[in-house]
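Data availability excerpt. The first of two example chains:
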Amino acid sequence: MGHAVRPRAHPQIRPGKADMTQDSSWLWMPARRPAAPLRLVCIPYAGGGAAVFRAWPALLPDVEVAVVRLPGWEARFTQPPFRDFGALLDALAAEVAPVRDRPLALFGHSLGALLAFEVARRMSADTGPGPVQLFVSGCRAPERFSFSPHPNFRMPSSSNISVPSVPCRRRQPCRLIC
């Protein structure tokens, strides 16, 4: 029998369980760096959580990384997710506002890119300092983005959608949301 080959870990990244219980319910800072000249707020993709950014502080030693934890995921699993995009943006902008005590940059991927763009727009419009940089990936440019569905697409009625129960390791039953 052969031995299983374990992938080599990055020398600066220690694998382990991230402590996601610290900080505010919205923002998680994997490594506090009070002397860092820049704070980077990272917003995950739809379906992703803050854990996808847990290794970033080791890769960005001169930056304090703050990761957005959206309701309905990871440590906020029991909280209902937002169903209104505008309300989500208002709440997210309000939570990011207090961490503008130093230069701030925003990063988002996919849906997180759209959220980061809209939060940056809101921050630039209010009286506080706006972000010094906006980084986005995996999303069309805002002027090419459309919320309107394709004319040939029809949303099925709710009576035709079944929501199966999915086995999981949580104390509460998980539901697949379509």
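And the second chain:
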Amino acid sequence: MWWEHNGQYNLGRNFDLLKQGFLEITYKITQGNNQGDQQTIAIELIEKLRQFSAYMHNSIQVVPDADYRKTYGNKAVEEKSFVNIGGGPNWHHPCWQNLDLMLSERDATPWDLFDHAPLPFADNQIEVAYTSHTIEHLDDETVQNLFDEVQRVLKPGGIFRIACPDAASHYRAYKSNEPGYFKFIIPHASPDASLEQLFLLEFAAHASSLNETNQVKKLSDKEIREIFESAPMEEALEQCSSLCTVEVQKAQNGGPHMNWFTESKVQSMLTKAGFEETTPSAYGKSSAYVMRDITFFDYTAPGTSLFVEATKT
């Protein structure tokens, strides 16, 4: 769903989440049996209204098309020399192309990264590339192919920005026994789900009892504890994620998380792809001005995400 305001487009995902929140509160209103329930519901409703007001206040495209033209030139804008890889079926920006597995009613190009096909661009064609919360759905071989391809299609000086779940942050939350951390980022999970299974769902979902597949060995809570007590973080993460398979991922439409990433792993893969400059980044702090527009970029779980950028020299 898209919301159009003052002639500019903005992503409707936050709007959809707010809408769902209103629906949940409406349901609670119909179920409330006493004055205490009604007071709690009223407080929740006021908070949702506050969020909606803030959403509408920020619903204008921050970086106008004119700034794209001023920075990159008319030809780059007209040819849409900016690509979001895995933006989702509802992501649209008037200056950008979007490659995604899911079909879209907008102008996204259907693209299956598991095919390892060359990206549909010439060498040195793209000004800026972006991918957010996509690589955790892919195996290492596919991610490396993606990084190789982005390096090929970027112009010299072009920037590639990557956002993904921060495995080190998840690991710290697990070791600190913080189930609320995972229940916040996995709101659909059962309230009875164990800390171990919630943790596993974030980087090796196929092996979690919370995932529906029966084609992969499931790790029990005890086995997960033993793995992370006996091995260093990255070794333990890899031991679990190695149970995930591309076949199962495709059968589940690429939805679950099957991989883990730390800053060092992402930078190592970017270096292998040929990028000589890689730097850690942060929410809303891209070195490319156009990607500091948080209406379109970096909005997915920023508090638990890892941000890395690479520049083609």
